[in-house]
Structures are given as C-alpha cells and as structure tokens.
Design a protein that fits this description.
By secondary structure, chain A is of the alpha/beta class. Chain A is 32% helix and 25% strand. Chain B has 10 helices and no strands. The chains are: A alpha/beta, B mainly alpha.
Amino acid sequence: MNIIITDLCKAYGEKQVLQNFNAVLEEGKTTALMGASGIGKTTLANILLGLEQPDSGTITGSPDHKSAVFQEDRLSENYSALTNVQAVCKNKADKEKAKNILCRLGLEKELKTQVRSLSGGMKRRVALARALCAEYNFLVLDEPFKGLDEQTKEATMQTVKEMTQGKTVLLITHDKDEAQFFTDTIINPKE
Amino acid sequence: MKTSATNLRKIILNTVAVLLAIFLWQAASLWIDADVLIASPLQVLARVVELLQSETFLATVLRSTGHIIGGFFLALGCAVILSAAAGRFPILEIFFRPFLLTVKTVPVASFIVISLIWLSGNKLSVFISFLMALPILYNNLLQGYKNTDPKMLQCAELFHFSPFKKFLLVRFPAVKPFLLSACSTGMGLAWKAGIAAEVIGIPKDSIGEMLYYAKLYFDSKDLFAWTLIIVVLSVGIEKLFLAVLKAIFAGLEKKI
C-alpha cells in the first residue's frame, strides 16, 4: 500500500516547518527527499515514523513495522556494535542476521568492539545495520551515508540498495548523486 | 606506556603524601609529648594489632558494619523505587521534596536524638545510615533518570524495545555514572552518620560504644585505633561494593 501524505502542516512555535505538504511514497520503492537544511525533512521523517504528531493533515497507508537511521547515530555507546544491532532482533535467527549485516557493511572486525571506540563512519554503519536488521515495511534513511569516506560510501550504498530492494524507503539526503543512485523519484517539501 | 608511567607517578606521589602525613603526625605527637592528647602512629598501629587479636573484635566490627551497610542498602532500595517513580510521574518529585529536603538540612545529631526516643541503640544506626544516604542516592538516581537522552527513548519506541532492553540500553547507561558516584558518596556518609549514631545511642558491642568509652577514659590510642579501623572498613567496603557493582553491570550488559 502506498503511503499518502495529504496537506501536512507542522509548526514549532512561530516557525512553520511544513505547510500543506503532499506526497505519495510508492509501496516497494525508494523515494528521495531533498532540499536545503531547515525545510522540514527530518520533521517529516519523524511524523512518518510516528515519533511526532502533525498539526494538521493526514497520512494513510503507514505500515506498522517501521525502521530508521536517524540523523544522529543514536547508539548505546557502552555496548558493542553487535549488541546494538541485536537489540532490534526478536529471535535467535535474527541475531545471526545481525552479524551478517554488520559483516556485509565491512564491520566484521568490529563486531565485539564497544561503539564508543569506533570511528564516526563505523558508527554510521552500525546504525545502518541496526535499521536494516529490524523487521520493517517502511524504512527512513536520514542522511545515512554522512561521515563515510568515498570508497566506503560507494560500497555501503550498494549494499543498502541490494538489501532494500522491494521495500518502501524514504531517503533523506542533500546529495543529488546519492538520491539518483537509489531512485528517480525525488521530492522537495518546499516545491 | 605513557599511561603506566603516569600511573606510577601517581602511586609514588600518593605514597609520598601519606608518608608525609604520617611524619607530621609523628612529629606532632613527639612535640606535644602527651599520649592523652595525641597518640603516635606507632602506638596506634600497636593498638590496632592488639584489637585485631582480641576475641570481641570481629563481632564488634561485624555488628556495626551490618547495621550501617544494612541502612545503606535499605536507602539504595528505597532510592531506586522513589527515583524511578518520581522520574516517571514528575508530580511525585514535588511531593517527595519536603521530606528529602528536611533530611538533607536537619543536623544529623538532631535526628539521632529524636530517633533515640523511638528506637533502640541497635536500630538507631541502621535508621540514621538509611536516612543520611537516602537523599544523596535519590537525588543522583533521579538526575540520572532525567539525564536519559530523549532521542534514545524515541529509538527504543521505534524499535519496540522490551522494558528490559529499554532499561539496559537506554536508561541504564544514563543512570550508571550517577549511581556509582552516589553509592560512593552515600556509603561514606552512611558510615559517618552510623558511627555518630552509635556513639550517642551506645549499642552494646559496637564500634560506637568503643569510641564512646575511649572518649570517656581519654584513651586517645583507642580513639585513634578505632578511627583508623573505621576508615579502613569504610574505604575497603566502598571499593569492594563498587567493584561488585561494576561486575554486575558488566554481566547485565552481556545479557542482551
């Protein structure tokens, strides 16, 4: 089922962040959300994830199982990379899946390393692994490749593309090439 | 390499500081030259050895330690429950405030004297240790609870963490440093207040009773020796407890 966003409005005090925003996120496809900072991309993502309420407007077709990479990594720094990813697992098979995803993202040597000891790029990939490991029908990726070097970024983007085939994904990015790598459907909240 | 050199330097400096303090103590005792006023370090050490060999020593130490640590653990249990309740329902924090403020501001001696009316000398040190440790533990734990990153809470909500996972991955990392620091301070305070309660309540065969008689008979050797024993017990038990706590935390962190 497509996710249909109709006349969505959201303001923080005097600041109107989203004004009658309309969009359709096609089921099983990736939609890229682009635009300058402060135009409400992350707010929209939070509303779609059910973490914030809009002032007005409707969202239909929003699935029950959602997953996300937030703008910040939001990891438990005292725990290992594997523990952070396994935290979203429901059963033993999923725990094995957590290990596999981390390996696919090039973190096989860092499975048992405390997150606080990892580099920024590694933490980002742990956050990505957690989002991919969770059970989801809708995935939000908010600047998921931030802080990765070019070579790692390319490999990570390829892995993420493969792993999200057939899923409904909202990719938030500033990078047009990054958006185009994933999809032809690019929207801008201000347009 | 650099860390071990820094550690070695720290150990050397600490040792020098302790030796200097003992030297000054020895110099003061020689200068004053009156055992009643100040016993020398060697006299105190000899008295500690004598006390260690006495039949009643272990029972005395265990009784006082049991009461004081018992009071501390009681406070810890209550603080965990009260801070979690106040964190979850902020209105409770307002209701708890006058009680905890009273405990924090009223002099410990007043509490001891008032409590003596209702409690026996034995129970007094448990109650006073409990009372003095509770506000510190409660305030720190509540601060830790409030310190939880709201973004991590959103994360827990999105990924449908069970209450246990939410506690371990989100709440616990925020509360942990506050809990460790509160336990360290709270336990020290429980010892100080607990012994003060024993000196006033004079329960039989307790460290407080020994201190009371040492004061009564101007026996400064005993006074210094028991004080040294209290310091060693307080610091030793605090270190042991914090080590056990850290081991429990490490075990919990592997449970996910």
